[in-house]
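Researcher: Structure for this, please.
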Amino acid sequence: MRLLALLASVVLAGPLASAATTPRQPQSIGLLTVSIRTAGVETPHMDECPEGVAVGNDEIWWKALNPRDRDRLTDGGAKGADARRLIAEKRGPKGEDVCWNPTVVRDPPMRVLRGARSEGLNLDGTLDGRATEKTCAHQKFTSPSGEAGIDNQMRRLVGCIYGWRKNGYIEITSDTEKRDSSQGVLMIKIDGVTSLEDSPDVTVRFFRSADSLPKDFGGSILPFKSYRIDGNPRYGATAHGRIKNGVLTTNPIDVVMPFYGNRVETEWFIRDLRLNLKLGANDASGTIAGYHDLNNWWDYVRKMGYLIETAQFSCPALYQAALTLADGNRDPKTGNCTSLSVAYDIKAVRAFVVESPPPILLPQADEGAAVDLSTLPFGITQQATGVGTVLADTAGRTLYVPTAKSCTGKCLAHFTALPAPWIAQSGAQWTTTLMQDLGRQWLFAGKPVYTCADDNRPGDAHCLRDGWTTLIVKARNALPDFITVQRSELGPIIADRQGRTLYKLIGDLTTFKKEICDEACFKEKWHPVKIEAALPHEGLIGTMQLDGQTVASFQGKPLYLFADDPGPNAIAGHRFGGASVSAKNWFSAVRVDEATEPPVKSAKN
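Model: Predicted structure, C-alpha cell format:
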C-alpha cells in the first residue's frame, strides 16, 4: 500500500503532583480545551449598553419596506424572522448578500459596549490606549480586580449583541458543537514542568485533537484521556513560558488554532497570543489573550448562516464597527489596524497528548489481495473505509495481513490475531493455525490475519504502514499524478503538487458571482488549476478545457485554488459562500473518499 504518513514518536502528557516538595525531572502535561468564550463583564440590566442591544439585519430590512412590500414579501406576516433571513441578507443594490459583501450598503452605526470594566490583559503596555508603532489609539478597560490598561476591543464590539452575551446563543452553541462533534478541539501541551506550582522554564505548544471526546453521563468531558494530535503542520506553534504560584503565563507568539462552532469549520489566527491559566490537578481555567486577525474573524462571522439572525446583528454595521475599533497590528502603508485585541475565557481538562498523528492514505486501484467473497468464513464482514471496501471482523474493525513477516513481540501491542473457532473449515484462501495460547488464528492465503488497536471505530484504517496491507474487496479509484493528499479539518483532502487545497463549486457559478463574489472578486480569489497537458484518466478527477486552457476537473467541472490559502493544509476557501443548511452556493474542499469512489447512481423510474 502506497502510504503518505506523518509518523512521530508517542509522547504522553501525564499527571504531576500539585506542589513541588522535592526536585524532580521535568515532565509534560496536556490540556484539552472544553470551552472558549469572549471574556467580559456584564451587569444584570445591561448598564454597559446604554443605547440598547444591537439592531439586526431583519429589523433594518423590515423597516425599509413600505407596507405593501412588507405584506407581499412576508406572506402577510406569516413568514417569521428565520424564514426571512435570506431575503434580509440579500438586500444589496444588485441583490448581493450583505454579510459576504458588507460594504455594498451603509447601515445605522453599531451599538457597541460603553462600559468601563472588562476582563483581559494589557497587551500594548500602555495605560491610556495611546497609539504606538504597532497599535492604534483606543479606549482601555479596568479589570474587575481594579487593574488598569486592559485591552479587549472584541468585547467592546460584540458586548451588546444579544447572541454574543454570556447567555447568548453563539458561544454556548459553539462549545456544545465542539463537545458533541469532537471537531476543532484545541489541545495544549506543556513541556518542562517540574511542579504545578513553580516551573521557571516551560515550553507550550498548540495542537488539534484527532480523536473523539469521551464524556460522563452528564455530558462533561472526562479528564486524563489520551488524544492524538491530527498532525496538521499548520498547528504546533511553540511559546516559552513559566509557572508561578500555580499560574501558567507565556510570552507572546502568533498562533493558528483549530476552531469549530456554529456549523463553521475554520481556524483562528491570533497574533501575539499569550496564556494566563490557573492549573489544577484535574483541569485548568483562565485567559487566552492577543490580537485576533480581523479578516480571519470576519470570515468566521459571515459563515454563521442562520445565527446571524438569531444573534441579532447587522453584518454591514458590525463590519464597519470592527474596522473602527481595530487596535492591533497597524499596517505601515495605510496606518489602519488589522486586528482586534481580545481575551477569551477558556476551560480545559487535563489530558494525555499523543504525538502520533494518524496516517494519510493515498489509495491505489491495483493494491490489496484478491478476495473470493463466496468463501468468506462466518463472522468476517465487509466494511467501507478510506481505501475502499475491505474485510472486517464482526465489530467492523478492519482486517490486516503482514506483507513480509508475522507479528510478534512489540508488534502485538498494536495488532491482535483474528481468532478462529476450533471447528473452522479450511478452504482455498482461508486456513487456520495454532497459536502459543493454544487458540486458533485465521490465515488468508497463508498469512496471519489481525485487527489493530489504533482503529477506534468501523471504517478506520489507521494501521496501513510499511509491512501491512488490508484485505481489499473493492479498491477505490487511483488518483492522477498531479494530485497529492493533505491533512485538514475535514480529514484527508486532495491538493495540487504544492499541497494547495483543491475546491469544487457547489451550486451555480452565475448565482455565486451575483450574490457572493462578483466577477472582479472571483478573478482575484479563485483560480482554476492549470495542467500542462490533458492526461488520460478513468477516475473522477481528470482534465478539461476552460477558456482555451487545460485545467484539472472533478466530475467534469473545474477544480479551483483559493488565493487566500496561505499554504498546505489550509482550507480558508471551504464553504466560501455560506455555512448554513440553506446555502445554495459555496466552495468545498474535496475529500479523498469523494475523489476516489464513484457516486452511487440513482435508480431510474
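Researcher: Any notable elements?
Model: The chain is about 15% helix and 30% strand. The CA atoms of residues 136 and 327 lie 5 Å apart.
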